[in-house]
Amino acid sequence: MSNIMPEGEDIRKAVKWISSRLEEDPAQSRGKLIHEAAFKFDLSPLDTEFLTNFFRRKRTEA
After folding, report:
1. What does 6-28 look like in DSSP terms, one character per residue?
2. Calpha distance 8→24 (Å, rounded)
3. What is residue 2's predicted lDDT score, i.e. its pLDDT?
4. Cβ(18)–Cβ(51) under 8 Å?
5. What's the alpha-carbon Rg for the chain, to the nearest Å?
6. Which long-range contacts (CB under 8 A, 24 or more apart) does 56-60 make?
7. Contacts of 18 by beta carbon, 8 Å cutoff, 6+ apart
8. How many CA atoms lie within 13 A of 27 on its CB side?
9. 46-52 contact pairs (CB < 8 A, 24+)
10. Which of 1, 10, 4, 11 is nearest to 59 (CA)?
11. Distance of CA 20 to CAs 17, 45, Å?
12. Based on the number of CB atoms within 10 Å of its own CB, is 11 exposed (0-12), middle (13-18) or buried (19 or more)?
């Protein structure tokens, strides 16, 4: 799996935040977590799209 991360501390924090929430409860809605992270870390629509694709890919690889 390639670990391509976009530049920017906010997107990195969002990935870590979502990942930690999913570790606590894997049944959580990824879409809801991404939506929450977008507001929490003030992400752009492009960053939000990255998160959606990143966690979709990660889920299919698991």
Report:
1. -S-HHHHHHHHHHHHHHHH-TTS
2. 25
3. 46
4. yes
5. 11
6. 56/30, 58/1, 59/30
7. 30, 33, 34, 37, 51, 55
8. 0
9. 47/6, 47/8, 47/10, 47/11, 47/14, 50/6, 50/11, 51/11, 51/14, 51/15, 51/18
10. 1
11. 5, 22
12. buried
For the whole prediction, is pTM greater than 0.85? no
Q: Can you give the pLDDT at residue 4?
A: 59
Token pair, residue 26, equals 């894997």
Q: Quote the tokens at residue 28.
A: 């959580």
52 conformational bin, left if phi > 0, alpha if psi -120 to 50, beta if neither: alpha
Per-residue pLDDT of the chain (62 residues; tens, 9 = 90+): 445 556 789 999 999 999 999 999 999 999 999 999 999 999 999 999 999 999 988 777 76
Residue type, 11: I
